[in-house]
Recover the amino acids of this structure.
């Protein structure tokens, strides 16, 4: 944990910790929302946590616990929104629960104006155990405390989300959701060696390895075909060729 020396930051942190002992849930904004995500086992996705702001009750810091269904594999979060003004500390409380604290950056001199802006605050990389079934696996927020710049507590609410395994009803190794997104149905591609865009990268490799568009030979539009592009999803990286090694691209 980064040690903070600024008095206001210390005040916010202390206020958050004290809030766990005295904070009561009230139906109001601001609000933290867990978005929902479908995943394919072995391919982590980013589960967003969204912040709904209230102009009448600005929030400068947040602390919360997040609990995951045991079949969900989650990694430490990544701060997205407000990253220029705030810092994130996350710690594992148990195999299925993390504690997250978001406070103004200790290097920022003006704390009173550093309120959190609405939008996606952070992402949790999530995946599912290989044996996970297709039911919704719940993700819940608990012990949430919102604090203003003076360490006063602000009432707010939360909403839960879920992570669910993507289906493959035709058993071709491609997620139905992915096939519908790119092909409009699940029957155009049969997985295996099928290559719908003819770029030399099979549909199943575009899905599992490259995460590229199976209907576009140049996913990032940089003038280099996906088969030859070392970074087929990044138009700013075109130098180098991919090499096939044991069936994988590098």
């Amino acid at each position: 944990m980064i040690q903070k020396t600024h008095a206001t930051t210390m005040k916010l942190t202390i206020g958050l910790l004290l809030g766990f002992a005295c904070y009561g849930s009230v139906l109001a904004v601001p609000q933290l929302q867990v978005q929902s995500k479908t995943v394919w086992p072995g391919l982590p996705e980013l589960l967003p946590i969204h912040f709904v702001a209230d102009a009448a009750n600005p929030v400068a810091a947040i602390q919360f616990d997040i609990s995951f269904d045991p079949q969900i594999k989650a990694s430490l979060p990544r701060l997205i929104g407000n990253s220029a003004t705030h810092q994130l500390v996350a710690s594992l409380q148990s195999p299925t629960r993390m504690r997250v604290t978001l406070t103004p950056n200790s290097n920022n001199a003006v704390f009173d104006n550093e309120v959190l802006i609405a939008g996606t605050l952070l992402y949790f990389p999530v995946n599912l155990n290989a044996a996970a079934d297709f039911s919704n696996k719940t993700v819940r927020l608990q012990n949430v405390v919102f604090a203003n710049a003076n360490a006063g507590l602000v009432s707010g609410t939360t909403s839960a989300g879920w992570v669910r395994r993507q289906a493959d009803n035709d058993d071709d190794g491609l997620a139905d959701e992915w096939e519908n997104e790119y092909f409009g149905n699940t029957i155009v591609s049969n997985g295996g060696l099928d290559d719908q865009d003819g770029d030399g990268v099979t549909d199943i490799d575009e899905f599992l390895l490259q995460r590229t568009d199976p209907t576009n030979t140049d996913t990032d539009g940089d003038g280099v075909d996906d088969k030859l592009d070392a970074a087929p999803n990044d138009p700013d990286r075109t130098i180098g060729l991919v090499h096939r090694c044991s069936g994988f691209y590098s």
User: Anything to note?
Assistant: Residues 167-250 form one domain. The chain is about 15% helix and 30% strand.
